Design the sequence.
């Protein structure tokens, strides 16, 4: 009996080990495509809704790999349905910037853009501040209300726009949200989502930096991210809007306004953040682009934050407290409005 039990235990352990071997491994980093390749919803079944492809020289966020010795990486392809896709590791260069504690014994992927030792210290970002470039967004979403009257004289035509303030790590979403409400959000029926409770002053402040309020973006952002922030909707959106205002009042905003219709490098963007928010702040900024070659356009900046994000600490302090990240897209065109 003891021999049989031992055999069964060994078999069970083997099954657990095999199951673990096939579990996705959560990582954080970037994937820069070196060729055009399909982006699968399931690479094992070769399913690819929308026939989505990664485009050469574009950089994408990495959120997982299929196993420690990865053959595929799960990335985020903005605009795809669903956005999370699998891509073959041979299709690009991967830089892993953070990994779960159990992965520290694994050999890291060789970085494409080494982080300077002087900027490598800091805590893993607890939040990301996402700031988009509205003319580039509207080029692919001309049906959005906020894009109808976007002009070169519009605030959103010369300033970065608030996309959201996202608790990290990725996957920290939909906290205490009921399945029916989540289904509404998954279907992009934002007009049917409940309106977050905030004061008229906070809503006015938010609408000034988040044009997407016209399309009920605030409802989506609250359901997905704000519910995990801690506190009420008014304090969440007031904080997010305040941080966005700091970016828009800085030399970063002037840099984008002066670069409309021109190419802008990640190096220049990060230098502007250093100038505005202190040495090392720019190393916490990653640039996202869409398209390739001469048609590669800057779409968004994600800014790593750590420390007293829920309190009153300034943006520079929060940025410098976070770990440095790769720059992402090396350069891109700053789309003009009207696009």
Sequence:
């Amino acid at each position: 009996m003891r021999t049989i039990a031992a055999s069964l235990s060994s078999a069970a352990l083997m099954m657990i080990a095999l199951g673990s071997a096939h579990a996705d491994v959560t990582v954080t980093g970037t994937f820069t495509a070196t060729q055009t390749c399909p982006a699968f919803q399931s690479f094992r079944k070769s399913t690819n809704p929308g026939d989505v492809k990664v485009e050469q020289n574009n950089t994408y966020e990495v959120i997982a790999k299929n196993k420690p010795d990865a053959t595929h990486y799960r990335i985020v392809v903005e605009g795809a349905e669903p956005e999370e896709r699998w891509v073959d590791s041979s299709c690009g260069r991967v830089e892993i910037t953070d990994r779960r504690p159990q992965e520290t014994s694994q050999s890291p992927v060789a970085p494409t853009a080494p982080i300077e030792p002087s900027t490598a210290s800091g805590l893993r970002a607890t939040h990301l501040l996402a700031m988009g470039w509205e003319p580039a967004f509207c080029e692919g979403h001309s049906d959005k209300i906020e894009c109808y009257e976007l002009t070169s004289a519009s605030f959103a035509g010369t300033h970065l726009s608030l996309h959201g303030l996202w608790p990290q790590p990725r996957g920290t979403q939909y906290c205490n949200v009921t399945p029916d409400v989540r289904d509404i959000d998954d279907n992009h029926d934002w007009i049917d989502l409940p309106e977050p409770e905030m004061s008229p002053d906070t809503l006015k402040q938010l609408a000034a930096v988040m044009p997407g309020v016209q399309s009920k973006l605030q409802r989506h952002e609250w359901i997905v991210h704000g519910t995990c922030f801690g506190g009420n909707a008014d304090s969440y959106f007031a904080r997010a809007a305040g941080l966005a205002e700091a970016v828009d009042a800085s030399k970063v905003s002037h840099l984008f306004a002066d670069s409309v219709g021109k190419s802008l490098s990640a190096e220049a963007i990060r230098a502007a953040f250093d100038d505005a928010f202190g040495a090392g702040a720019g190393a916490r900024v990653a640039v996202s682009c869409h398209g390739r070659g001469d048609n590669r356009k800057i779409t968004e900046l994600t800014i790593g934050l750590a420390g007293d994000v829920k309190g009153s600490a300034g943006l520079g302090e929060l940025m410098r407290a976070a770990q440095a990240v790769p720059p992402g897209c090396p350069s891109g065109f700053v789309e003009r409005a009207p696009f």
